[in-house]
Structures are given as structure tokens and as C-alpha cells.
Write a structure and sequence with these properties.
Number of strands: 21
Bound molecules: adenosine-5'-diphosphate, magnesium ion
Radius of gyration: 32 Å
Shape: globular
Distance between the termini: 17 Å
Helix content: 40-55%
Largest sheet: 7 strands, parallel
């Protein structure tokens, strides 16, 4: 449905002919409202600055007195350079204009002029990119810059926007209710929009931005929260009436008391499982925070309620490890735990599948082998996926569809920055384990240059002499498994030689046969191997508490999150652990990453930093990011507003007034026009 405003096309603006209209259409501008809402993507800053504070090569605007007759010089064909001296405060600098010979006549000795350009600090020269023929101030401090197509220029666009404001001021309607405008002292939509296009001062711009950041986040969050609410209310899940006594007993039988954070998330998960809604929950917890036992308790609960559980993990090593630790935990309670990976074949597999169908297997653990067609459960109640970001959305969906409507728990040890969690997983419930088991010592991390390798090895020797074990992680060469493997073999051979007769060294990489991997892992777990040379296959989940030392070669080749995951293989017991990053980063960002690694063990801090260094698009990898695009707001820098908007949206969606009062009508209209309210009753 089109409102009258949307039908007011841009051709209604004087001066916009057919040609211009077409070009603006290509920019997504069809109506006068579109034009008014076409906000600049950045501003050029024309504020005056003290030259003292300006760094070399930075862009600067200065006002000064012309101190020498402009000297014009031609070179080549049509190329010219105009040079003059400019007295800026107490600095005498040079201003250079390229290919603007006509300025010679315009600029006179003793004129006051304002120039903007690149500052060569060493030679005290401004190469002028923008010239204002008079004192500063004519220009305004900020010039909006629009994303343009065709022959539409920044200036024509601004001219039309100005006309639109004058001729059609009523096109812009307030969409936020006055309670919110007052609560946050936000400016009216029309004023804010005007100041985004024509900012007079920093303050104007700040206020205008603030309003739109909030509006964008609120609209987005309303959509997510509405989706979540309706999904909860409309998809009937299963009610799992678990046996609380048995669960308590099980928790008491654990070799350690649960942390408060573990107890809290277990309560959140239990409440979901008991409810008639289908659970759709993300469990975040840093490496080593103890997610496995939480999963075990949830799976156990499901079994006590008469259902089966499934745990899907990304690698075979991890599947085996989980199968071992879960059988150890759950078998004493009489549960049957089975492992299904691609190496389970033939008769063995057929038998396993039969038992699964008959309900003789309570908990099935495996890799993506779990989602094959012939894998059928008798009554699947809970699906847990570990390291969920490694599975595609489809794989998760297929697994979920194996039961009637099983509850789903996604676990991840890659802490997702709060900001991204709110946006990307806005439609999911999120539980966070933000506490480490007691008695853990923070891992000490050091950054060493390649020429310090022999000292690092001496350090490693000392740890091994104490009876500890060590991981050595080999560099990632490129997206080539083959080269990675070759590298690991080289390092392995060197260390074999280095530790000869003293310690046993094992080798692990992705090309080993599953049986071989299994054997290497078992030997490392049982301390028959003291040193494990490996590619990144050990990245996820492997648990050998006696390993207290990790050496990572060429650490600059890894991302922060990955380094943190790798490092998480140590520091899992009570002894002090160490992680040495051998790295020669070439870029500032690379150095920054190494520094951050040595400064914090907190995965959430690291993920926020990672996001800052890489930007939101890169965080998940471009393809699967699925991140919403905001015109004004920035998810990283405006995250406080995002949190506020989320809470407000949540409150609104669950309040009566929102669905009835007229002041919320524009927001309801927005929800229905974005398709969220399909089939919902409105007004
Ligand atoms: P992650 O969250 O990385 O999957 P794990 O579940 O593998 O962590 O747990 C790491 C280690 O901590 C395991 O050895 C586990 O037995 C132990 N652990 C888990 N919870 C606790 C706790 N509450 N107290 C002490 N140790 C715990
Ligand atoms: Mg884990």
C-alpha cells in the first residue's frame, strides 16, 4: 500500500526533469520522501585546526593571509602549478594549487583565504584540494558527501534536497511516539533530517545522528523482537517434563560444583525445555568455561523426560572426545550414549541406526553424519550443536527437522561481540556463561620474535621437565591444506630431533586417517606423547588438562578469535599455563593483535577488539554475515544505543499500549509493511 507521500515523485520538485529523475531512480530515489531520506554517508570536515596538531599527510583546513603574489608555472601540456605563501597564525606556509591557473587573478596579496588540502608537515606545504575565496565560515564546518550515480553531483543533490524541504515540509512525519522523544530528548524527525543534510554545527549533527541511530536500531529491534514473539507463540514445541530429582542427583555426582554462571544458564535452558515453546537458544561461553557439562545436563534432562538427545559437533576428534566424556558422565546414570561419524560404517552403522529408531540409544553424538537421511530418531527432544558458527544454517535446520519440533541449543565458544549477538541473533534467546570455574589461573601469553625460538624451546623444556605437556601449532600457509600439512611435518621433524631421547613428539593434521588421529589424540591424552605438533585441527574443544604450554608459529597469520580458540587448549587444569606467539607482524593492525593477545584472556574483550579491527562485515566472513545495513547507525560505535533500543523494543512489543494506542501507529505500520505482522491482527 502506498501512502500519498510515497506517490509524490521527485519530478514534483522544480528543476528535476525526466533525465535527472531517471538518474536519481538509479540511486533508489523515487519519491520526495526518498530524496529527503537520502542521507550523506560521510561529512567532509572543514573546521579550522591548529597546524601544530595536524599530522603529516592529514587533510586540514586553514585560514590565512596571502603573503606573496601567487606564482604560476606551466609544465607539460595544460598542466600548471600555482604557488603562494600563506600566513596562518604564526606559521608561514606554502599553498600549492594544481591545474587551476585562473586562480592567479582571483587571489591577491593580503587577501584572507581558506584552503583545504593535504598537509606536508616536513615541507610545510598544503596541497590544496578545496579553495574558499574568503574567510572561513562561508563554507560551513561540515559538508555532507552523498553516494552518487551518473551525472548527479553532490551540489545538485543538495540543491534539490533544499527545495524539497522548502516545498514539501510535511512529507516528513514523526514516527517515534512522544514518550520516547521526550525520554531521550530526541529531535523531531524533520529537524533531525534537515540537520543531517545541512549541519550548522557539530552539535546539530550530533543530535541529528543520535535521533536516527536510535530510530534505526529501534525499528530493527522491533522487527526482530516481533519475529521472536510470534515465532514463540505460533510454533508449538514439545513440553519436556524432566525429572528434577534425577537431575539434581546427577549434578551432585559431578566431580566439581557448578559455577553460578553454569547454574544460571541451566535454569534458563530448563525453563525453555519445560515450556510449550520451542527452544531456540544460543549458549555463549568462553573456551574452558564449561559448556560441555551444561550440554550434558540438558541432554540428560531430555532423557529423563522420555526423549532422545543429539549433539552435533564439527570435527571427528571433537565428536569422539565428547562421546567419551559424555559416556563417562552419563553412563553411571544408566544412559546409552553412542557415537556416529563417517567412520562408523557397514554393519556397525546399520545396528546403531536400528537402535536409534527403537529408542535404545538415548544420546547420539556425531559430526554432520547425524543429518543424513537414514538417521532417524524414535523421539528426538533436544538438539545441541557445538561451535554453531561452523555449521551452515541449512545443516542446523535439517537436524532440527529430525524430530517433531525438538528444542534447540546452539553452543559457541567464539564469543560473539554483544553488538553482533544483538543484531545477528536478535531472534534467538541468548544465555551467557561469563565465569570461569574456580581455581583457573589466567594463561600467561608472550609475544616472541622468530629469532627467540631457542629461548622459547628452553622454556618449553622446563615445563616438560615438570611433567607437563605441550602443543606446538603450525602456521597456516594459505587456504591449502596440503601446504599446512607439509609445514607441520617439517616442524615435527625438527622437534623430533630436538627432543630426541628426552620426550616423545606426536604429529596431528587433517590428512591423517581418522584411526591415526584417534590414536595420536589418545596417546597425547594419556601422556605417552609429551609434545603434540599440530595444524589447527586441535583448535576446537580438545581437552587435555595436563597440557600447559602452547607454542604458535607465525601467529600473525591467525585471526584473534582463532588464536584465542587455540590458546584455549591450555589453561584447562589448575597449573599455570603459557602461550607463546611466535610472530613478526608487518602491519600495525597485526602488531596490535599480538599485543591484545598478551594483554587479555577474556574472549569477549578479544571479540570486541576483533570486530573493531576487522569491521562487522568481516567478522563472520562476508558471505554469511547476514548483517543488517544501517544508513546512519554504526553497530560497533553505537552499541549502547543498540542495547537501549533492544530493551525498549522488547518492552513495547510486550505492552498493551503498543498494539492499541494511536501514538504507536507509525511503528505498527512499519512492522506490517516489513512483513513481520503477516497474519497478525492489527488495530
Ligand atoms: P568449553 O566451554 O570450552 O567447552 P569444557 O566444557 O570443555 O569447556 O570444560 C573445560 C574443563 O573444565 C573440563 O575439563 C571440565 O571438566 C571442567 N569444568 C567444567 N565445569 C567446571 C566447574 N564448574 N568446576 C571445575 N571444572 C569444571
Ligand atoms: Mg567445548
Amino acid at each position: 500500500m502506498k501512502t500519498p507521500n510515497e506517490e509524490l515523485t521527485i519530478q514534483n520538485i522544480k528543476g528535476v526533469g525526466e533525465e535527472t529523475a531517471l538518474q536519481m531512480n538509479a540511486m533508489g530515489i523515487h519519491s520526495v520522501l526518498d530524496l529527503l531520506e537520502y542521507v550523506p554517508y560521510r561529512y567532509d570536515d572543514y573546521r579550522l585546526r591548529d597546524l601544530e596538531e595536524v599530522a603529516h599527510d592529514e587533510r586540514v583546513t586553514v585560514e590565512g593571509k596571502v603573503h606573496s603574489e601567487p606564482a604560476l608555472m606551466y609544465y607539460g601540456r595544460k598542466k600548471s602549478r600555482l604557488t603562494l605563501r600563506l600566513l596562518v597564525g604564526r606559521y608561514l606556509i606554502q599553498a600549492v594549487f594544481f591545474n587551476q591557473p585562473y586562480l592567479k587573478k582571483k587571489i591577491n596579496l593580503h587577501d584572507t583565504v581558506t584552503v583545504t588540502g593535504k598537509w606536508d608537515k616536513n615541507r610545510q606545504i598544503v596541497t590544496v584540494q578545496h579553495f574558499q575565496g574568503g574567510p572561513h565560515g562561508k563554507q560551513g564546518d561540515f559538508e555532507p558527501v552523498y553516494s552518487l550515480k551518473g551525472s548527479v553531483t553532490n551540489n545538485t543533490l543538495r540543491k534539490f534536497i533544499k527545495k524539497a524541504f522548502n516545498d514539501y515540509p510535511d512529507v516528513i512525519q514523526e514516527n517515534l511516539p512522544s514518550v520516547l522523544l521526550e525520554k531521550y530528548k530526541l529531535s523531531h524527525r524533520r529537524d533531525a533530517l534537515y540537520h543531517l543534510h545541512f549541519p550548522d554545527s557539530t552539535e546539530d549533527m550530533k543530535q541529528a545522528r543520535r535521533r536516527f541511530v536510535y530510530e534505526e536500531f529501534l525499528l530493527f529491534q522491533l522487527k526482530m523482537q516481533a519475529l521472536r514473539k510470534f515465532e514463540r507463540e505460533h510454533t508449538s514445541g514439545i513440553q519436556q517434563h524432566y525429572d528434577l530429582e534425577k537431575i539434581k542427583e546427577f549434578i551432585h555426582s559431578l566431580p566439581f560444583p557448578l559455577t553460578d554462571a553454569q547454574k544460571r544458564v541451566i535454569n534458563e535452558i530448563s525453563a525453555d525445555m519445560k515450556s510449550p515453546y520451542r527452544m531456540n537458544r544460543l549458549l555463549q561461553g568462553d573456551v574452558g568455561s564449561g559448556k560441555t557439562v551444561v550440554a550434558a545436563i540438558a541432554l540428560y534432562s531430555s532423557v529423563t523426560a522420555g526423549f532422545q538427545g543429539a549433539l552435533m559437533v564439527p570435527t571427528e576428534i571433537l565428536a569422539e572426545q565428547h562421546a567419551n566424556s559424555l559416556s563417562e558422565l552419563l553412563s553411571p546414570s544408566g544412559l546409552s550414549v553412542a557415537l556416529l561419524t563417517s567412520s562408523v560404517k557397514g554393519k556397525k552403522r546399520a545396528l546403531l541406526l536400528e537402535k536409534l529408531r527403537d529408542g535404545d540409544i538415548d544420546i547420539l553424538i556425531g559430526t554432520h553424519a547425524l543429518i543424513q537421511d537414514d538417521v532417524q530418531f524414535k523421539q528426538l527432544g533436544l538438539v545441541v550443536t557445538d561451535e554453531q558458527h561452523r555449521f551452515g544454517v541449512n545443516q542446523r535446520r535439517v537436524l532440527r527437522e529430525k524430530g517433531e519440533s525438538p528444542d534447540v541449543l546452539f553452543m559457541t565458544a567464539t564469543p560473539i561481540p554483544r553488538t553482533l549477538a544483538i543484531t545477528v541473533f536478535g531472534e534467538m534467546d541468548v544465555s551467557i556463561i561469563d565465569q570461569m570455574p574456580a581455581g583457573r589461573k589466567p594463561i600467561e601469553t608472550y609475544w616472541a620474535k622468530a629469532d627467540m625460538l631457542s629461548r622459547v624451546l628452553t622454556f618449553m623444556d622446563k615445563e616438560l621437565d615438570k611433567g607437563r605437556q605441550a602443543y606446538v601449532i603450525c602456521p597456516l600457509i594459505e587456504e591449502s591444506d596440503k601446504l599446512d600439512v607439509q609445514n607441520a611435518i617439517d616442524v615435527y621433524n625438527q622437534l623430533l630431533h630436538y627432543f630426541e631421547g628426552r620426550y616423545d613428539v606426536g604429529l596431528m593434521h587433517g590428512r591423517l586417517h581418522p584411526d591415526e588421529k584417534d590414536e595420536v589424540m589418545r596417546n597425547f591424552s594419556s601422556n605417552q606423547l609429551q609434545v603434540l605438533v599440530s595444524t589447527t585441527v586441535v583448535e576446537v574443544g580438545v581437552n587435555v588438562p595436563n597440557a600447559t604450554f602452547m607454542l604458535i608459529y607465525d601467529a600473525e597469520r591467525f585471526g584473534l578469535s582463532q588464536l584465542h580458540q587455540l590458546r584455549g587448549r591450555v589453561g584447562r587444569g589448575e597449573d599455570q599455563s603459557y602461550c607463546i606467539l611466535l610472530a613478526e607482524p608487518k602491519t600495525e593492525v597485526g602488531k596490535e593483535r599480538m599485543k591484545i593477545m598478551t594483554e587479555t584472556n577474556d574472549g569477549f574483550v578479544l571479540s570486541e577488539k576483533d570486530l573493531e579491527l576487522r569491521g562487522p562485515g568481516d567478522f563472520f566472513g562476508k558471505k554469511q554475515s547476514g548483517l543488517p545495513e544501517f544508513k546512519v547507525a554504526d553497530m560497533v560505535h553505537d552499541y549502547r544505543a543498540l542495547e537501549v533500543a533492544r530493551d525498549d523494543a522488547n518492552f513495547l512489543i510486550n505492552s498493551k499500549q503498543f498494539w492499541s494506542d494511536s501514538e504507536f501507529k507509525p511503528l505498527r505500520t512499519y512492522l506490517s509493511s516489513s512483513g513481520v505482522l503477516e497474519g497478525e491482527k492489527l488495530d
